[in-house]
Fold this sequence. Notes:
The protein is mainly α. 71% of the residues lie in helices and 0% in strands.
Amino acid sequence: xxxxxxxxxxxxxxxxxxxxxxxxxxxxxxxxxxxxxxxxxxxxxxxxxxxxxxxxxxxxxxxxxxxxxxxxxxxxxxxxxxxxxxxxxxxx
Length: 92
C-alpha cells in the first residue's frame, strides 16, 4: 500500500506542476508572460517565499521559457532535449 505524504513539499510540487500545465502552451506575448509572472507571484505569497518553492518555480519558468520562448537550456533547445530524452521516456 502506498504511503500518503502530506508535507509541504507535496503541495509545492503539486502547485508548481499545475502552474506548468497552465502555462506550458502559452503564446509568446507580453500578456501571457505578465499572467505567468503574476501567477508566480501569487505562489510566492502563498508559500511565504519558501526556498524550495523559489527554486522549483525558477526552474519551471526556465522550462516554459525554453518551450514557449525558444530559450536554450545548457546549450540545447527544447526540441533538442525532447529528441535526446525521447528514448528514456519510451523505455519506461
